Amino acid sequence: MTSNFDLMKLIADPKIEAILYSIQAVDKTVKEIASELDDKPSRLYYPIQKLLDTGLIQVSEEKQVGNLIEKYYSSRQLFATNEEFMSIEGELARTNSAALLSHMFLTFNKGANLLKADLEDSGETRAMYREATVSLTHSEWLKINEEIEKLISKRSSTDDKTNYTFSILTYETDAKASKPKKA
Which residues of 67-76 are buried (b: 16+ CB within 10 A; e: fewer)? Predict the structure, then answer.
């Protein structure tokens, strides 16, 4: 059993993140992942085993190649229906809640540090913060979150791209963290 601290370290590792995104849409062998990440397969076996142990990735297929069995790995279950949105939910999220929250804080911290640097340097804008409080029904709130995901997914494709991370946290303003509402 992996501790939440170990899972937090695992999720926060850039190599782990690269592996998860490498196998989000196409199942790959360790050799294929290593080639894509410009790394040696021998350096990926340990992190892949840790990802398997935590349930963050799965073996999707096994093929006999000569005397060896090649395993194909997938993180598709984390990305739900949209390959660009990582979604750790349900039992996996409950089991590893401390690690998931730690990952979220690390992601927000990266953005906050970049925003701070932007504000201090007054150069190119590389991070933004926006906040809005609106009155909505629960179903309207869910719909807006779906629309944000669709908007990000529908963007046009260009050759000159920069990767941006959208960490969108929406919440009920008056909700008490210690007492969740019953559905």
Answer: eeeebbbbbb
Residues in the chain: 183
pTM beyond cutoff 0.85: no
Q: Tell me the per-residue pLDDT of 91-122, one tens digit each, with 9 for 90 and over.
A: 877 777 766 776 677 677 777 878 888 888 86
Taking the C-alpha atoms of 10, 34, 107 and 82 in order, what is their torsion angle to the nearest 10 degrees?
-110
Distance (Å, rounded) from C-alpha 90 to C-alpha 97?
A: 10
Amino acid at 2: T
Place of tokens 């076996």: 45
Distance between CA 85 and CA 167 in Å, rounded?
Answer: 10
- Report phi then psi at 13, rounded to 5: -75, 125
